[in-house]
Design goal:
The complex is a heterodimer of chains A (about 160) and B (about 120).
Chain A: E1 5-7, E2 14-21, H1 25-33, H2 35-41, E3 47-54, E4 61-68, E5 73-84, E6 88-95, E7 102-112, E8 115-123, H3 127-134, H4 138-155
Helix pairs in contact in A: 1-2
Chain B: H1 3-13, H2 16-26, H3 32-36, H4 43-55, E1 59-61, E2 70-72, H5 74-113
Antiparallel strand pairs in B: 1-2
Helix pairs in contact in B: 1-5
Classes of the chains: A alpha+beta (about 160), B mainly alpha (about 120).
């Protein structure tokens, strides 16, 4: 079990994730800003991540594509607004499958004596967008367990 | 997802007696008398709980026969399950992603330590 915490206060437009990593801050910062590093961990385990663009400077663009084995591709892109190695990254984030829904993400890394505490705050354009992201897995993932609930309830 | 309906469902579920009634109804329809049996409660007290469950759409009362059987209704529980499932997935996907980052960081440190 990790120490990940997710805070999404009701009625706000924000999701804040905190989690610590057993690695020095320089390395964690690099994992977010080096194309070769991003390719190795970003995205779903089941898909390949292609780093199309990663211009790690204020005003620079980034674009990552998740490529599934079956050929489906999901693109994500945005613009870096602030990069202060090794402590802070600010960028916009947009899923190309839902154009126009842009969020602003601020990631702060704190040195904890060899470990690194990450605080990742995402601000959405609306409470609805925020709630939508929190419920993102629902459509596909809920169906299986709901089928089981259906079967169970049908017996009654 | 209808937020007001979720409010009603969660309010109805926020009581151990009502949850016990729902658990009993998972085994099949039952009369008020049958439902009241396990509890040290008067019939009117049990009826009150049933009304809350009925208003929340969690149960329906039959019109047939004198015993008016209570039945479990799946829809509101499905909505609760949907709601919880969404958060669970968000959590799991986030955690899985960071576990991959853990692996990357471990590897990178191991390689960095090699001569």
């Amino acid at each position: 079990m990790s120490d990940m915490k997710v805070v999404a206060d009701p009625g706000t437009q924000e999701i804040v994730i905190t989690r610590s990593f057993d690695a020095p801050r320089d390395l964690v910062f690099k994992a977010f800003t080096d194309p070769d590093a991003v390719r190795q961990w970003w995205g779903q385990a089941s898909s390949e991540t292609v780093v199309d663009q990663l211009e790690a400077r204020p005003g620079g663009r980034w674009r990552f594509v998740e490529r599934e084995a079956e050929g489906n591709e999901y693109g994500f892109h945005g613009v870096y607004h602030d990069l202060q190695a090794p402590e802070r990254i600010v960028y916009t984030f947009e899923f190309e499958g839902m154009p126009g829904h842009v969020l602003l993400e601020t990631i702060v890394f704190e040195d904890q004596g060899g470990r690194t505490l990450m605080t990742d705050s995402s601000v959405f354009q609306s409470v609805g967008d925020r709630d939508g992201m929190l419920q993102s897995g629902m459509e596909s993932g809920a169906s299986e367990s709901l089928d089981r609930l259906d079967a169970y309830l049908a017996k009654g | 997802m209808d937020s007001e309906r979720l409010d009603h469902t969660f309010a109805a579920l926020a009581d151990p007696t009502r949850r016990a009634i729902l658990a009993r109804l998972m085994a099949g329809a039952a009369s008020v008398t049958e439902l009241a049996e396990p509890f040290e409660m008067t019939l009117p007290a049990v009826s009150k709980h049933l009304k809350v469950l009925e208003r929340a759409g969690l149960i329906t009362r039959g019109r047939e026969a004198q015993w008016r059987p209570c039945r479990l209704e799946a829809d509101p529980l499905k909505e609760v399950a949907d709601w919880v499932e969404g958060y669970r997935r968000f959590w799991e996907e986030s955690e899985r992603r960071y576990e991959r980052l853990d692996t990357y960081l471990r590897e990178a440190q191991r390689k960095g330590a090699d001569p």
